[in-house]
Write a structure and sequence with these properties.
The structure is a single chain. The protein is α+β, with helices and mostly antiparallel strands. The chain has one domain: Beta-Lactamase (2-Layer Sandwich), CATH 3.30.450.30. It contains three helices and eight strands. The protein has a six-stranded antiparallel sheet with strand order 1-5-4-8-7-6, with helices on both faces. It has a two-stranded antiparallel ribbon with strand order 2-3. A hairpin with a 4-residue loop joins strand 4 and strand 5. The longest helix is centred in the last third of the chain and has 48 residues. It holds the Pfam family Robl_LC7. One of its GO terms (molecular function) is guanyl-nucleotide exchange factor activity.
Length: 179
Amino acid sequence: MPVPVQAAARRVESRMDPQLTSQIVPAEEIKVIEECLVRLAEDTGGNYVLLLDKSGQVITAQGDAARQDITALGALIAGTFASSREVAKLLREKDFRQLFTQGVRENIFISLIEDQWILCIIFNKGTHIGLVKVLTKKATDDLSVVLERVREQQKARDDVLGSSFRTSMEDTIDLLFRD
């Protein structure tokens, strides 16, 4: 049975890609994401499922609680995806949306979600890759909806806080540096 690894609201910040911004994923959306990841792990028989931002920061993970290296794993998976983008450019492709890595004991299937998040599922040799691909596609569609909600919530917060904060800051600066 998959075990939640992280369950609180997450602030996702990227320092590696200028297209990525600081983003807060609210606790209620984390819960929806975790339910999606648990369903994917259960339906595929996957050992571990991670959702990352493109910089490799783990948003949430479900699965084998014995894995304690998820931060390093997230960074390496994001690095693999970044490397594949460069290979795609050399091949005159826009990018590669999915990657499959086959190991002796475990396989990894990685899928890009709307150019911002990375979904990674680790599964054993007994699981058919076709099943993983089909169910991962459904999960990425579901997670795209969540990502859009997170973006909209962030935009609404930025609109409210942006103007209010700016006005407050200007007033404070005026008070501090009055002649």
